[in-house]
Amino acid sequence: MAVLVAKHPASLAHDTGPMHPERPERVLAVEEGIATSGLEVVELEASKIERTELAVVHDADYIEMIESYSSMGGGAFDSDTVTSSMSWEAALRSAGAVRLLTEQLSARDDAFGFALCRPPGHHALAARAMGFCLFNNIAVTAALLRSQGERVAILDWDVHHGNGTQALLHDDPGVLYVSLHQSAFYPFEGFVGDIDDGSAKGTTVNVPLPAGTGGDVYREAWTDLVLPVLDQFGADWVLISAGYDAHRDDPLADMSLTAADYGFMAHRLSQAHPMQRTVVVLEGGYDLDALRDSAQATVVGLSGSYEGGDAEAVSPHGARAALERSKEVVSRHWSL
């Protein structure tokens, strides 16, 4: 099994300023992890997404604003989210990377994809940049796949809830969005009860977990909730919003995962869904060693050859109670 890696040098030129945690070295760390995985790596140059493709989820005026900010040298949308002169190019290539991989994988049966997206995307709304994100890379490709009649599951294990992804795709019954995230935590959304909202009831599955939650509860959630829902949904494509900031060493969050936990989730997914219809999309993660090791574990897990050990962390009591609450609510719509 090979891994197709879509990337572009513009991702390294997106300048967020000194001391910003979302920095170019993140991409290099993930590249190192994939390169040392022992898998065959096929590198692809990420193409630019078209404006018309961005417009399936983003407002036209907003797209023009991102270009304008970048052309004038950049600027800050909020205290966390900034653009530079190369951000427009980087954002187009990030969104294009995900789309390119689905196109490439449609013609192959021996590979899965990894999109090295920078800037990341899952917080970006239709007309608002936030949380380091400009365009919602994964939502754009999901919407494009839906326009072709494909059913899409987005599995988001970033430590932050993907509020943008949920908002942009919430009312489409052909998109399943599942998020495991720290709560209460930025962006202070992603509630269990969201599953009952909107016109596509049942397809928004949030699993909010308290600070300190470790691999024991994540693995249980993945096995007993996420994968059963995925199986019943019947996705043609699985897109993973792969933030690695739930790692115990991440400086911006308070969860307790290890690289082995990401490997476990990826390996179990490889047993449940065809890997040639799976794309990993880089989101958060700000400790470089954790990024490298977790990305490596992810691709090895997806290849079906992962042999990681048991979960190392024991979660606080409230974590299992939170998971049981999620199971109770989700079971109104899905058999668990």
Instruction: Output the CATH homologous superfamily.
Output: Histone deacetylase domain
Taking all Cα atoms into account, the compactness measure Rg is 18 Å
Which sequence of SSEs, written as H and E, runs from N to C? EHHEHHEEHEHEHEEHEHEHH
Per DSSP E runs of 2 or more residues, the count of β-strands stands at 10
Described by the principal axes of the CA atoms, the overall outline is globular
> Do you know the CATH architecture?
3-Layer(aba) Sandwich
Residue runs with pLDDT of under 50 for 5 or more positions: none
- Can you summarize the main beta sheet? 8 strands, parallel
The helix fraction, in percent, is: 25-40%
Amount of beta strand: 15-25%
Number of domains: 1
State the end-to-end distance: 31 Å
| Structural class by helix and strand composition | alpha/beta
Write down the CATH topology. Arginase, Chain A
